[in-house]
């Protein structure tokens, strides 16, 4: 009996520490009804996140005090975006970013594979960044964008660095996770090894405020060393 109580207590403590499926119990040879329904709900949330869209009016209103532009990728709809990742990496023909200031750090916000993550977390991260940066950064909102589209935008604005905030591929316990990809001297065709990534920005993961601090620390180190990606030891950062 004492062993059963100890195991139950351990499972309860584990469930308090993580949203992963641990200690979910059994009903015969299968899951409990509660665990089965929870799995179905999380699966539905993940699917919804992939097909959801950014709340552009809310984001545009929140970012209106900074230089702002809204563009789209070459993927003309969500279905094409999901099937053709390559089209999400480049701007649609005719997109114009000439109104934005040149030579700055540019913040790009893209829906990625979870607009839910952007709608929930992007405003907090961007606001934190703008408070910490030495000067305001222009912002580009991208519909149906992939990570590499930040390189096109960075080149078009002659940016010193680009901070790409993008919805991460949703998991069954985190459909609202935002990722940040930071690249020094962006230009089309850069390999992924030139980027530094901060992931799992969400409630229950890395807080938006702390993520903003880490991004700014990375930017400062990039400015000093003129490099980014695997050549930059992000583990050496100290808060």
UniProtKB/TrEMBL annotation:
Protein EC: 4.3.1.7
Functional pathway: Amine and polyamine degradation; ethanolamine degradation
Main location: other
Cofactor(s) the record lists: adenosylcob(III)alamin
Residues given in the record as adenosylcob(III)alamin binding sites: 147, 168, 197
Note accompanying the cofactor annotation: Binds between the large and small subunits.
Residues passing through the membrane, by range: none
Substrates-to-products reaction catalysed: ethanolamine = acetaldehyde + NH4(+)
Signal peptide boundaries: none
GO molecular function: cobalamin binding; ethanolamine ammonia-lyase activity
Gene Ontology biological process terms, A to Z: amino acid metabolic process; ethanolamine catabolic process
Keywords per UniProt: Bacterial microcompartment, Cobalamin, Cobalt, Lyase
GO terms for cellular component: ethanolamine ammonia-lyase complex; ethanolamine degradation polyhedral organelle
UniProt keyword annotation of GTP-binding present: no
Annotated Pfam families: EutC (PF05985)
Protein purpose: Catalyzes the deamination of various vicinal amino-alcohols to oxo compounds. Allows this organism to utilize ethanolamine as the sole source of nitrogen and carbon in the presence of external vitamin B12.
Similarity-based family: Belongs to the EutC family.
Quaternary assembly: The basic unit is a heterodimer which dimerizes to form tetramers. The heterotetramers trimerize; 6 large subunits form a core ring with 6 small subunits projecting outwards.
Identification of the protein by name: Ethanolamine ammonia-lyase small subunit
Organism: Celeribacter halophilus
